[in-house]
């Protein structure tokens, strides 16, 4: 499903509500309204239930940030089955009626970045909006180190606001609205490129190239074997921790769909809903076939070609057994970091080639990439590569 979060409010008050609707397609006007997600009742210290924005973390969890003036900015985890709140709301910035609204959270490496607007919106050439950012090492804060990333005026751009981030092909693009001082203050859309330098975001307006873009966009994907054409999925469509990851005929089923989330450091997490793929020690099947995925590395080992057993950590991509019998650790699903080693869950995505019609050619665009599941310093083989299929709705 596609989910649309919306807000209704009595302007200038905290009598507001955020709701959610969903649809299996973006090509239909027929959305199912699931009702209220969170509401506020007019109190001066309440978190005003407008300006909703979603953020998906590396562990697959989804969070809603929202708020405007009054009680500041709130954050709560979303239940991905219902689209509603999964727990309590935490205040992460502001309060006391300060002019803070329109939150948006991103993550790069070990930092979470919380963007907000300060000032007054939507008054044409008299608008005083600015965009500020703070950062934290936990999504719930505390956030600190306030920086103004877009000033109230920059050339013809006045009062930029309501930032949102699109990660496309490994690059970040930010949208804002602004008032055009060269056009009588009319409201317009601005698109900027966002990079990170020294641990902080940097916005570039009027960018002219896409240098440095690569990898894939965050989203939901299907992994299909280059050897067999079959799709990677959770055996038996299980939702339990420890379920095996196996290949089977591609049925476009939910258990064959995986989140791919960039960590900003060249590593990615992959997981079905909130059950990421990880490598778990101690599971030793008597026979491992090409239908199962194995990781022959020792715990803590980062060198290619390590012998069988234990965990695979950062720097050791998954490896398919490709039909031979062995005793190896199996790739399994688990709760986020549930096995106690966070580094066993991020993986590198190598990009040696993309599919063009029925041929395999050199990488020219990142529209589809190949996962190299190999821990050996060997040439690329069909049995150790997987095609990342087109994104699919949640």
Main features:
2 domains, five-stranded antiparallel sheet, Trefoil (Acidic Fibroblast Growth Factor, subunit A), globular, 394 residues, mainly beta, six-stranded antiparallel sheet, Tachylectin-2, Chain A
What do these coordinates show?
The chain has about 400 residues and is mainly β. It folds into two domains: about 1-205, Glycosyl hydrolase domain, family 43 (Tachylectin-2, Chain A), CATH 2.115.10.20; about 220-390, Trefoil (Acidic Fibroblast Growth Factor, subunit A) (Trefoil). Helices cover about 0% and strands about 45% of the residues. It is built from no helices and 31 strands. It has strands at about 1-10, 15-25, 30-40, 55, 60-65, 75-80, 90-95, 100-110, 110-120, 130-135, 145-150, 155, 155-170, 170-180, 185-195, 200-205, 220, 225, 230-235, 245-250, 260, 265-270, 275-280, 295, 320, 330-335, 345-350, 355, 360, 370, 385-390. The strands form nine sheets. Strands 17, 21, 22, 23, 26 and 27 form a six-stranded antiparallel sheet that branches. Strands 12-13-14-15-16 form a five-stranded antiparallel sheet, with no helix packed on it. A four-stranded antiparallel sheet has the order 4-5-6-7, with no helix packed on it. Strand 14 (about 170-180) and strand 15 (about 185-195) form a beta hairpin. The relative contact order is 0.10.
